[in-house]
Amino acid sequence: MNERIMIVDDDPAVRYTVQEVLRGANLSAIAVESGRACLEELRNGFRGVILLDIMMPEMDGWDTLEAMKREGLSEGNIVCMLTAVISPSAELETLKDDVLDYVRKPFDPDGLIATAKEYLSYLRTVPEGDGYEGEDKA
Amino acid sequence: MNIIVIGASTGGPKALRSLFEFLPRLDAAIVLVQHMPRFLNESFRRVLAERTLMDVSLAEPGQMLEHGVVFVAPSEFHLVLNDNRRIDLVRGVKVNYVCSSVDVTMLSLRPRGEDSFLGIILTGMAADGADGIRHIKNLGGLTFVQNQMTAAVYDMPHSALLTGAVDFEGSPKAIRERLVEKFGCIQTVSSPAAESTPGVEGG
Amino acid sequence: MIVLASDDLVTRQAVSVILRRYDQPSTFVSTGREVLSACDKKAPPEKVILDVHAEMGDPISLFHRIFQTFGAEKTRVFLLTHDQDADATLPPGHCGAGKMFLGGLADLEAQFQPSATPLERFGQALSVDQIRLGSEDEFMAVFLHAPIPIYLIDPEGQVRRANRVKNPYVGSDGKSSRDIGYVLGCLHAQKEGRCGMASQCRNCLLSRIIRETLREDRNFHRKEISLEVSAEEESSENIHALVSTTPLWIDRKKMILLFLEDVSELRRSQELLAEFNRNLETLVARRTAEVQALLEQKKEFIRQLGHDLRTPLTPLVALLPKFREHLEDPRDREMLELIISNTDYIHQLVVRTLDLMVLENEGEQPELRMVELRVEANNVLADFAPVLKENGFTAVNNIEPPVRLPVDVVQFKELLLNLLSNAVKFSPAGGRILIGANYNEKETTLSVSDTGVGMTPEQLSRVFDEFYKADPSRHDRGSLGLGLSICKRIVNNHGGRIWVESPGLGKGTTVFITLPSHAPDAATVREER
């Protein structure tokens, strides 16, 4: 059940693209359009690899990350920023421990698949009970 | 003793994947500081161990460095080397916004007899590791950084580069080649000492 | 010739010093009478200086005899005194037609000073109030032609004479009066009928000057006054003027000669200047802030543009290749490859254009570091090796001996990579690339030569234009036409020069880059250990 991916992006074309590319590698991803919706999924028990857009209206990627930490929803998730912003802003500096990777749009499809697989492989080996409150819902 | 300290942050896991893929047991001890959330420590160690022929251990306090073994710094601790041999874990304030900090580990190295040092800075935001690289250079060690073309975020290698103390810049694959070239391999298949290390069992 | 009559040795010496200073030939005698015998009648002295304190006999009869002997037009008499009260010994009205001056040594010296304008000398002469003006014509000539307004005012404050004024007795209200305040257009004088009557006049410098010149026989020299005068449409404005006055006896009546220099314009300019200076700092701060804001805006724009261009490219770049597996028809596949290569091309174009903008934005201060040129070039060649190999190129690094120079490593690498990929792009497969360098104390010239297609002079003149492609029909996606303009930005950032030479089409191309061997003083260079 851990083998899950979530794409958070306000652009429907990007969400569709990510899902399609991953589907080609037999990977399924859920897609949400905002930081708020991402948090909702996390509250409902999602744990996995989160591909998080930075520039989004209302609540941007950094806000979403902060909210995840605040609500204790970070553990069990691997966050990879997926963004069209050329270089990461200073915000990333304080969130270095929480963001494992940074992928730029437009991305190379094989590279994205490799990234997703790489981080899924980490989650597969997370021992049970190591910070997995609320796991039963997922 | 040959001591390699590797620092990586954002984008690090993928760079390390290339660097450690089929890496033979080097005749050197590697201390690896990768910024990551704590719950990932053990799985990170496992994934790494699957790739390399070296032993990979999540560092425990009191552990002694050993050639052929990779020691992964656990999150929320600074890994400090005592007399270049004994590992101390210091639960401390964040340095460069992180804990573990690459700088803290690198700066704990001291000149000692025949010890030789190598510092490597891979992809990541900001400047953690730059002071450490300068320090290793001062100790007469070698210093490598990841190149811009392959780095997800080039800031950390760039900051290190700007110290003027970097010997080589290249892709993780190129760095791997240099490691093998420089240190060579240990012929023994596995190290019993590493296997008996309590830290390997995770937790 | 100038004749001095004095029996005092010190006076003689003092005068002789002055005269020598102005190259005036002189003769010295002891008494007034000797003056007459000292000079030839046919060569009258230009000036006779009489020491008032010397034994001279009756001064009046002496003047008459001097003027009779030499002619009043030719000889001037100067009465030298160091006692300002000596006037008393010379009753006015007895000087006849001769030109006569009275004063101390300084006044005497002033007579010879070329800096003294005719008007100033005129004023000095007039300050001897006891002496009547010898020639009214001369006075009138000077009076009328003086470059500034002059008013002759009687003790009642009425203007008796004025120069340079069309109708001197008509005030600005059109009514006629001779009152000085009225004539100058002072609002208060016009209201009260004459100068000095309104309550405001108590603080008015003009009315004080007129009063004191009359009452105390004082001269005023260029005192600045300010008058409120009526201007168009019932408004008023202030005029500023420098006023000089001197009491003057005319027909045994004490008058005032008043000189006026209008400095209103000057004062207005000065006020504006002062105001401007006061505002300048605020202005500079505001402008700096504006420029800062614009730069921020530009940065933000680039960020936003990058984001907005990259996002829609994402599905194109990621999804198009998926169709490769699904298409059977070779013609469809060909079409797809065309679409993919064009998408890649747009992608590269976006990335490179944004790179260029970022480079321009942050270009002012490269982060300089001393590097070994040969080693740096080797590093880049190593990075580039796969491309060289793929195209069968050989590259030779001829940089020798080792030279170190300050560069921004990242930008320098970008620079070399651009030049190498250009060399590969514009050479047939299997070409050769040569990297060389020349140094002197001041600068290092790096060259990258290829065995490629070369360039015409027309092409050479345009290679640094953005998006310029030597052959516009070339639509290969490797060529964006941005490489050399990026190189130029980088070289400019380093304070260097870049140029391209080619012997002609088919004969290869060499790019030269000259970089300073030392960092500018302001920049700090991180020194390698």
Which properties best describe this structure?
heterotrimer, A: 138 residues, alpha/beta, Rossmann fold, 5-stranded parallel sheet, 5 helices, globular, disordered C terminus, B: 203 residues, 7 helices, 9 strands
Q: Can you walk me through this structure?
A:
The complex is a heterotrimer of chains A (about 140), B (about 200) and C (about 525). With about 140 residues, chain A is of the alpha/beta class. Chain A is about 35% helix and about 15% strand. Chain A has one domain (about 5-120): Rossmann fold (3-Layer(aba) Sandwich). Chain A has helices at about 10-25, 35-45, 60-70, 90-95, 110-125; strands spanning about 5-10, 30, 50, 80-85, 100-105. In chain A, helix 4 links the parallel strand 4 and strand 5. The longest helix of chain A is centred in the last third of the chain and has 16 residues, at about 110-125. Chain B is an alpha/beta fold. Chain B has seven helices and nine strands, in the order βαβαββββαβαβαβαα. In chain B, strand 8, helix 5 (about 155-160) and strand 9 (about 170) form a beta-alpha-beta unit. Chain B is globular. Chain C has about 525 residues and is α/β, with parallel strands linked by helices. Chain C has four domains: about 1-135, 3-Layer(aba) Sandwich (Rossmann fold); about 150-260, PAS domain (Beta-Lactamase, 2-Layer Sandwich), CATH 3.30.450.20; about 270-350 and about 355-360; about 365-515, Heat Shock Protein 90 (2-Layer Sandwich), CATH 3.30.565.10. In chain C, about 40% of the residues lie in helices and about 20% in strands. In chain C, the strands form four sheets. Chain C has a five-stranded parallel sheet. The interface of A and B includes residues 96 and 98 of A.
Short description:
The complex is a heterotrimer of chains A (138), B (203) and C (529). By secondary structure, chain B is an alpha/beta fold. Chain B has helices spanning 12-20, 41-51, 102-107, 130-138, 155-162, 172-183, 192-195; strands at 2-8, 29-34, 55-58, 69-72, 78-82, 86-90, 116-121, 142-146, 168-170.
